[in-house]
Amino acid sequence: MSSTKSKTQPRLGKRPSRAKKRKAGRSKGAGNRRSALDRLSPAEARAVLTRLLAAKPALRAKIEEIARGLLSEVKFETVADEVEEAVKGLSIEDLHGRSGRHAWGYVEPSEAAWEVLQETVQPFLDNMKRQIDLGLHAEALETCKGVVLGLYRVEHTKDAELTEWAPDFATETAAAAVVTWRRGGPGRNRVAKAIRRRKRPLFPQDFVTQFAAEWGPMIARVQSESRWR
After folding, report:
1. CA-based nearest residue to 207, from 161, 144, 136, 159
2. Which of 76, 124, 226, 228 could form a disulfide with 145 if both were Cys (CB 3.0 to 4.6 A apart)?
């Protein structure tokens, strides 16, 4: 009597429904889609934040905390490196279209170089002013020290191409940074501003001695002159 052996077939799980397949496909596609937040410009990011605060005013305190935290994350060494790199990254090519003859007259290369250099360093000075206005005085001082040190390096390494056209830029801009630190934020009137300035600590002499010794007399002079202005 012959017998046939039955073959055991593997048990198959329940096949997913078409609806689940479609849902899985949508989820996978959403995961591969790039985030719009990652592609926002600074202006668009501000607009999103403004609308978020308008819709969820309860988030303002938390967002304010995060903003202050970002503004307080500053070390003078990092600022100095960024200032030095930004200035040394400029070249004579950055003067193209700035110097020479224009419809309004002739622009000297030195004038154009100063303009480009100022635009490069201005964001660091603006950061310091914002920190002062917000009462982040320790952070503002760190920024000021970073600007001074970065420009001091630029002045003394002599490998910043554009400063050859504006040899006084580093010194004068460093002096302006120290004056901004000494004057502090806006005051209600001239007397109040002068009193606050007298109480404000001087730009630290030990920092100048260690990192910018040759600018010591200049920094002492501008601090003295800015005391009552």
Report:
1. 144
2. 76
Per the confidence metrics, is the pTM higher than 0.85?
no
Q: Which residue, 222, 98, 109, is CA-closest to 163?
A: 109
Helices of type H across the chain: 18-32, 42-55, 60-72, 76-88, 109-133, 137-157, 169-183, 190-199, 205-211, 216-225
Instruction: List Cβ neighbours of 86 (8 Å cut-off, separation of 6 or more).
Output: 120, 121
Is 183 within 8 Å of 229 (Cβ atoms)? yes
Instruction: State the Cα–Cα distance between residues 44 and 42, nearest whole angstrom.
Output: 5
Give me the mean pLDDT over the 24-34 stretch.
56
For the chain, the average pLDDT equals 78
Residue 58 lies in a domain: no
Instruction: Give the number of domains in the chain.
Output: 1
CA angle (144, 148, 151) in 5-degree steps? 135
- State which residues form the domain around 114: 74-225
Both structure tokens of 189: 């009137």
d(CA 187, CA 179): 15
% of the chain beyond a pLDDT of 70: 70
